Amino acid sequence: MAQPDETDSLPPAGGITGTSLLGLQEESDSDFPHEDKVAFIWGDDTLKTLRAIQLALLEGRSANNILETLETMCRESPPTLNPGLTAAVRAIRVRAAVELAKLHKAEARKTASEHDRRSDEDEPA
Predict the structure, then answer these.
(1) How many domains does the chain have?
(2) In a domain? residue 64
(3) Distance in Å from the first CA to the final CA of the chain
(4) 6, 56 Cβ separation under 8 angstroms
(5) pLDDT tens digits along 26-84
(6) Is 0.85 surpassed by the pTM of this model?
(7) Where is this region: Disordered (predicted)?
(8) What domain range includes position 66?
(9) The three-state (H, E, C) secondary structure of 32-86, written as one string
């Protein structure tokens, strides 16, 4: 029978939110290295961008310009010194990459569907 490891008693990891990022900023600003301040701001901005995409989709608006912003943000994720902040930045990047992949796949399906519909209209009956 397998032995339980130490992680069995840990609660499941929750999602990364602006509130959880605030918990990492409990150190005084003078003790918070510049790299981590930049990473904290990046994380907060990236989460806001993800929320903006979600809102645009819920309202039926195009999220293309927001997607471009998110792609740029993911390419420019900053280095961090704090291990907790490093984990948060990594989790945000993964979440953003998953959302970008889903949205690109949906866009490709929409484009293919429109192309198929136009092809069907062009064919003689």
Answers:
(1) 1
(2) yes
(3) 67
(4) no
(5) 544 557 788 899 999 999 999 999 999 999 989 998 888 898 899 999 888 888 888 99
(6) no
(7) 1-30, 105-125
(8) 34-122
(9) CCHHHHHHHHHHHHHHHHHHHHHHHHHCCCCCHHHHHHHHHHHHCCCCCCCHHHH
